[in-house]
Design goal:
- This is FBXL4 protein.
- This protein is of the alpha/beta class and 620 residues long.
- Among the domains are: 179 residues, Jelly Rolls; 117 residues, Leucine-rich repeat, LRR (right-handed beta-alpha superhelix) (Alpha-Beta Horseshoe).
- The chain has 15 helices and 21 strands.
- A twelve-stranded parallel β-sheet has the order 10-11-12-13-14-15-16-17-18-19-20-21, covered by helices on one side. Strands 1, 2, 3, 4, 5, 6, 7, 8 and 9 form a nine-stranded antiparallel β-sheet that branches.
- Helix 14 links the parallel strand 19 and strand 20.
- The protein is globular and about 70 Å long.
- It starts with a helix and ends in a 5-residue tail after the last strand.
Length: 620
C-alpha cells in the first residue's frame, strides 16, 4: 500500500473530529438540553450585558463564623464588595470552616469512599441568588485572601424567586478545574472562561477545595455578567484544542452514565453474543474485583453490554460502599428506586448534598431505607435539606446497626426530631454541626449512646447549658476520642472539669471561639493534666491563653500534633520554644494575631523547627 494512504487516513480522522466539534458547538443546545455550548464561540451583540452582585446567600455547607453574627460568614457574599481590592484577613469576608489537609490528619478524620470519580474534588459549596435571570457571559469571584480554592461553578435553571416551583431542576457546569496552588495570599479577581448555557439563570453555585491552601480562603463578592436574551452564535469557530474534545467526551460520558442511572438500570433486552470473550472463563470473584474500580456511571453503562456483565454490575456486593455525593445534581427518587435491588447489602452510604429542591422526597428516602437500611453502618447526609422528623424516625427504625451518622448543616430538621437518634445505641460517630438540636434531645442521646467516640456539636446555637452537656458526657461517654464544641457560647471551667475527668481518652478537642472560658480559672491547665493523649487542641480566639497553659501542654501532652491559639496576647516566644522542643510530633501551630509573636519570631521558630507549619496571619 502506498504511504500516502495512512496519511490520508490520519487527515480524514482529524477532519472528522473538527467537523464533529463544530457541529457540537453549533447545535448542542438544540440537540441535547443537558449539554452546554462553549463560550469561546463569540456571541453577536444583540442585547446589552447586565452586571449583578449576589442578592442573597441561599445555602452553604459550612462557614468559619457564628450563626448569630456576620463575621467570617457566607452571608458576606451578598451585595457589593466589602474588602476588595485589599488583601488580608478581614471579618467582613466569607470563610469556609477548614483549609489544608489538617482535618484529614486528626483522630476524627473519616475514611474516604472508594469509587469517587477523580473529577469530583469539591469539599464545600455556597449557592447565591441574583435579582435577574440572565444567560451568563462571565462570573467574577473577588478573592481577598489565599485564593485558589474555587474548583467548580454551576448554574441552575430554577428561579429561587419564582412563585411557581419548576417541574425539572437542571444544573449545568459553567467551569471546573482541579485544585491549584496559587503563589501568594494576595487578593485577586478570578474570572474563569465559562461555557454558555441554553437557559437563563439567577442561581449560581460555587464549589471549593481548600486542601492545597496554607490558610483559610476568603471571598468578598461574586459578580454575574449576562444578557437577557439568548445569544446567537456567530459562524466563527475558534481553533480546536484536542484536550477540549477529551473533556467534552468525559462530560458526555458522565451525563450518559447518570441518565443510565435514572432510566436504564432495568435492562429489557441485552445483546446476544455467541461468547463473552474470555470473561466467562474468569473466576466470578476476579471479575468482581476488576469491576470494583469502576465509578457508578461506568457500572451503569457496562451493565448494558451483555448478560454476564449485567449480572456482575448488578451484584449487591458491588454496592457495599456507595457515595452518590459526586452526582448530587442528578440524584432523585427515581435513582434511589432503581438502586434498591442493588443496595440490599450496603454498609456505607453517602447522600450528602443530594435531594434538595424536591429531588428526593421523604417517601422516596423512606422507601429506600426500608429496603436497604438493615446492614447500614455509616450514613452521610450532610446538607440534606429534604430531611425531616419522619426521615430520622425511619433511620432509627430501619438501621439497627448504624454506627456513624452525619447530619452536618441539616438546618431544616426541627429540634424535636433529634430525640429519635437516642434509639440508636450503637452510634460511635455523630456529627450535628450547624443543626437545631436542643438540650433535652442531646441529653437523651448522650444518655443512651454510650459507645460514642466522635461527637461534633460545633455551632449548635440552641443548646442552653453546655456545662450540663459536658457533665453528661463525662458521666456517660467514657469512650469519647474527639469532641467539637466550636463556638459553644456558654461552657465554663465547671463543664471543662467534668469533661476532663470523665473523658480521659480524648485525643481531639475543639474549644475555638468559646468566650466564657478563662485561663485564670485553671481550666486549660486542668485539660493538659487530665488529657495526656491530646493530639489536637484548638483554643482559637481565646485571648486569655497564657504561658502557663502552653508550658503545661509541653509537660503533659507530648503527643500533641495540632495547636491553634490564634488571637492570644499572653503567650511569649519562650513558652512556644518549650512546646516545640517537647512535642516532637507537632505539625501545625497557629499563632495568628498573637501580639507577642511577630514575623521575626515566626521565622526563627521555622528555622529551628522546620517540620512544624507555623501560621501567622495578617491584615493590611
Amino acid at each position: 500500500m502506498s504511504p500516502v494512504f495512512p496519511m490520508l487516513t490520519v487527515l480524514s480522522m482529524f477532519y472528522y473530529m473538527c467537523l464533529r466539534r463544530r457541529a457540537r458547538t453549533a447545535t448542542r443546545g438544540e440537540m441535547n438540553s443537558r449539554r452546554a455550548i462553549e463560550s469561546n464561540t463569540r456571541a453577536l451583540p444583540i442585547n446589552v450585558e447586565m452586571v449583578q452582585y449576589a442578592k442573597e446567600v441561599l445555602d452553604f455547607s459550612s462557614h468559619y463564623g457564628s450563626e448569630n453574627s456576620m463575621s467570617y460568614t457566607m452571608w458576606n457574599l451578598a451585595g457589593i464588595p466589602n474588602v476588595y481590592p485589599s488583601s488580608g484577613d478581614f471579618t467582613q469576608t466569607a470563610v469556609f470552616r477548614t483549609y489544608g489537609t489538617w482535618w484529614d490528619r486528626c483522630p476524627s478524620a473519616r475514611l474516604p469512599f472508594k469509587r469517587t470519580p477523580s473529577t469530583f474534588c469539591s469539599q464545600d459549596y455556597v449557592e447565591l441568588a441574583f435579582e435577574e435571570p440572565v444567560y451568563p457571559t462571565a462570573v467574577h469571584i473577588l478573592e481577598t485572601y489565599h485564593p485558589g480554592a474555587v474548583v467548580r461553578i454551576l448554574a441552575c435553571s430554577a428561579n429561587p424567586y419564582s412563585q411557581n416551583p419548576p417541574t425539572e431542576v437542571r444544573w449545568e457546569i459553567l467551569w471546573s478545574e482541579a485544585p491549584t496552588k496559587v503563589n501568594g495570599p494576595q487578593a485577586r479577581q478570578f474570572t474563569p472562561c465559562i461555557k454558555q448555557i441554553n437557559f437563563p439563570t439567577n442561581l449560581i453555585r460555587l464549589e471549593v477545595n481548600s486542601s492545597l491552601l496554607d490558610y483559610y480562603t476568603e471571598l468578598d463578592a461574586v459578580v454575574l455578567h449576562g444578557v437577557k436574551e439568548r445569544p446567537m452564535l456567530s459562524l466563527k469557530t475558534s481553533m480546536i484544542d484536542m484536550n477540549d474534545i477529551d473533556e467534552e467526551e468525559d462530560e458526555e460520558k458522565f451525563a450518559c452514565g447518570m441518565d443510565t442511572l435514572n432510566k436504564q438500570f432495568s435492562i429489557v433486552t441485552l445483546r446476544e453474543w455467541p461468547t463473552n470473550g474470555y470473561f466467562d472463563k474468569l473466576p466470578y470473584e476476579l471479575i468482581q474485583l476488576i469491576l470494583s474500580h469502576l465509578t457508578v456511571p461506568d457500572l451503569c453503562r457496562l451493565a448494558q453490554t451483555c448478560k454476564l456483565l449485567y449480572q456482575h454490575c448488578c451484584d449487591p456486593l458491588q454496592y457495599i460502599h456507595l457515595s452518590l455525593q459526586p452526582y448530587w445534581a442528578r440524584i432523585n427518587d427515581t435513582s434511589l428506586e432503581y438502586l434498591q435491588s442493588r443496595c440490599t447489602l450496603i454498609q456505607w452510604l453517602n447522600l450528602s448534598w443530594t435531594g434538595n429542591r424536591g429531588a428526593i422526597s421523604v417517601s422516596g428516602f423512606s422507601r429506600f431505607l426500608k429496603v436497604c437500611g438493615s446492614e447500614l453502618v455509616r450514613l452521610e447526609l450532610s446538607c440534606g435539606h429534604f430531611l425531616n422528623e419522619t426521615c430520622l424516625e425511619v433511620i432509627t427504625e430501619m438501621c439497627p446497626n448504624l454506627q456513624e451518622l452525619n447530619l452536618s448543616s441539616c438546618d431544616k430538621i426541627p429540634p424535636q426530631a433529634f430525640n429519635h437518634i437516642a434509639k440508636v445505641g450503637s452510634l460511635k460517630r455523630l456529627i450535628l454541626y450547624r443543626t437545631k438540636v436542643e438540650q433535652t434531645a442531646l441529653l437523651s442521646i448522650l444518655n443512651f449512646c454510650s459507645e460514642l467516640q466522635h461527637l461534633s456539636l460545633g455551632s449548635c446555637v440552641m443548646i442552653e447549658d453546655y456545662d450540663l452537656i459536658a457533665s453528661m458526657m463525662g458521666a456517660k461517654c467514657k469512650k469519647l476520642r474527639s469532641l467539637d464544641l466550636w463556638r459553644c457560647k456558654n461552657i465554663t471551667e465547671n463543664g471543662i472539669a467534668e469533661l476532663a475527668s470523665g473523658c480521659q481518652l480524648l485525643e481531639e478537642l475543639d474549644l475555638g471561639w468559646c468566650p466564657t472560658l478563662q485561663s485564670s480559672t485553671g481550666c486549660f491547665t486542668n485539660l493538659a493534666r487530665k488529657l495526656p493523649n491530646l493530639q489536637k487542641l484548638f483554643l482559637t480566639a481565646n485571648r486569655s491563653v497564657c504561658d502557663t497553659d502552653i508550658e503545661e501542654l509541653a509537660a503533659n501532652c507530648t503527643h500533641l500534633r495540632q495547636l491553634d491559639i490564634l488571637g492570644t496576647r499572653m503567650v511569649s516566644p519562650a513558652s512556644l520554644r518549650k512546646l516545640l522542643e517537647s512535642c516532637k510530633d507537632l505539625s501545625l501551630l497557629d499563632v495568628s494575631f498573637c501580639s507577642q509573636i511577630d514575623n521575626r519570631v515566626v521565622l526563627e521558630l521555622n528555622a529551628n523547627f522546620p517540620n512544624v507549619f507555623i501560621k501567622k496571619s495578617f491584615t493590611q
